[in-house]
Amino acid sequence: TFKFDKVFNTDATQTDVFEGARISQLVSRVTDGYHATIFAYGQTGSGKTFTMEGYDYKNKNDGRAKSKAPVIKDDENIGITQRAVRELFQQIKFKKDKTGVHISVFVSYLQIYSEKVYDLLNLNNLNPKKNTKGLRIRWNKKDQFLVENLFIFEC
């Protein structure tokens, strides 16, 4: 049994999902000092990646290792991740201008695929489906979970 707040049909736009999931309110709580997670769940091919990223990929041949480059067709289709980041920095700027407060931002970006955790910010992990090991999840001394060796970047 799963508990959830909202279900979107196949006609929902990226804007519908962003607003319906109340991401702006979530981001506002982040600027107040709380942690947040945006989580997409569903079977393979159900649209999670498109909802989170909002664009397709094309093969990139730049003489280095084979990689993929995002194809961003228009601003209307950008995903939840990009919209949330944009909203976060807009709210940070607003708070700084209004109160002078300094806010530091740290991010990680992971994928759970076939019950394994993959770091999407680790350039050595560009194709998680071929990496069979995944990262380990542990509990720390504060009874919080952590993903071992997950890249965390300060923005």
TrEMBL record:
ATP binds at residues 42-49. GO terms for molecular function: ATP binding; microtubule binding; microtubule motor activity. Residues 1-155 form the Kinesin motor domain. GO terms for cellular component: microtubule associated complex. SUPFAM superfamilies: P-loop containing nucleoside triphosphate hydrolases (SSF52540). GO terms for biological process: microtubule-based movement; mitotic spindle organization; spindle elongation. Keywords: ATP-binding, Motor protein, Nucleotide-binding. The keyword ATP-binding applies. PROSITE patterns: KINESIN_MOTOR_2. Signal peptide: none annotated. Belongs to the TRAFAC class myosin-kinesin ATPase superfamily. Kinesin family. This is Kinesin motor domain-containing protein.
